[in-house]
Write a structure and sequence with these properties.
Length: 321
């Protein structure tokens, strides 16, 4: 089938487009937020086709996969007036936890009968008010990068975009205490000002922005993966690190408590306990290796690509019937 979706979340889309369909991604001359086209730093198959908005009205589309509220009217306009949920089946994929007054956060497609709402974690479904909208959970899937862990560098890896701007959401404030326990290598977009922002010496907080392939190689040589995020759905970089065979030290918040089982690392709401666990892995590389192997087995079992694609295939078949 032909599936129309926007390039919004590169890591998630990389897994989704491994399926058996044709994936139409809008591209505009400026390659802005609504027309990024194909990914440039992720490996996508040839079944992902760039398409100009002007060409969509004459293009057969079997399902529209929405990921942002404004995509609904945008899709109907670009599709030449075809109505989503009536003329073309629609699925709304929610990547994020709610923001603002969380217990009362109503989802943008709550109480609709013309769309299926899919959450990427059970935590998301629980915390969003979905109203009467037909709702499903399809947990993440990861293209397995392989068991590449060596842990030869006694440093903690962190992956986060915009850590200065996002602040407490991503646990940026916690990095000062954690950097005392383990020197940090922080990877992600707009991380270059992080060390100065936190007042950390250059050797305690190094930063770099890498494409996915380079990121996996860089993560695998660090001793542990540190995930200090307070409020997020479930960082795909955490699952990728587990696939690589890295032990995890993470805040026990949101869906991380489901993703990281006992023996795969340390989860706690106490930063001092996370610091203790990081020191342990620096001092005991064999323990880090053993816990990382358990983390990989757990990630493959729950977040493997085959299960992910199968779940989506069932849903896409269902919404078209």
């Amino acid at each position: 089938m032909n599936i129309l979706l926007w390039h919004v979340h590169g890591s998630w889309t990389t897994a989704f487009v491994q399926g058996p369909h044709t994936y139409l991604v809008p591209v505009t001359p400026d390659r802005g937020p609504d027309g990024l086209g194909r990914a440039r730093t992720f490996d996508w198959p040839d079944s992902v086709r760039e398409i100009a908005p002007a060409d969509l009205a004459a293009t057969p589309v079997d399902v529209v996969l929405l990921q942002r509220p404004h995509e609904w009217p945008l899709a109907e306009r670009w599709l030449g007036g075809r109505r989503l949920g009536r003329d073309v089946p629609a699925v709304y994929l929610e990547h994020n936890t709610p923001d603002g007054e969380v217990p009362r956060s109503r989802h943008p497609v709550a109480d609709r009968d013309d769309v299926t709402l899919v959450h990427v974690t059970h935590f998301n479904r629980l915390f969003w008010d979905n109203g009467s909208t037909r709702t499903r959970v399809i947990e993440h899937g990861i293209v397995d990068p392989g068991h590449r862990y060596t842990g030869e560098l006694p440093r903690a890896a962190v992956v986060v975009n915009d850590p200065v701007r996002r602040g407490r959401y991503t646990g940026t404030d916690l990095l000062v205490e954690l950097a005392e326990a383990a020197p940090l290598d922080v990877f992600g977009m707009r991380t270059e000002a992080l060390g100065a922002h936190l007042g950390l010496a250059a050797d305690r907080c190094r930063t770099q922005d890498l494409p996915q392939a380079g990121l996996h190689a860089a993560l695998a040589v660090r001793r542990l993966y540190l995930h200090p995020v307070r409020w997020t759905s479930l960082g795909l970089s955490l699952l990728e690190a587990m696939h690589l065979g890295m032990p995890v030290v993470a805040l026990a918040t949101t869906e991380a408590v489901e993703a990281v089982p006992p023996g795969a690392g340390t989860l706690s709401t106490r930063p001092e306990e996370l610091a203790r666990a990081a020191r342990h892995y620096l001092d005991e590389p064999e323990a880090a290796r053993e816990d990382g192997s358990r983390a990989r087995r757990a990630a493959l079992a729950r977040y493997g690509l085959t299960r992910f694609l199968s779940d989506w295939e069932h849903l896409l078949t269902e919404v078209r019937s």
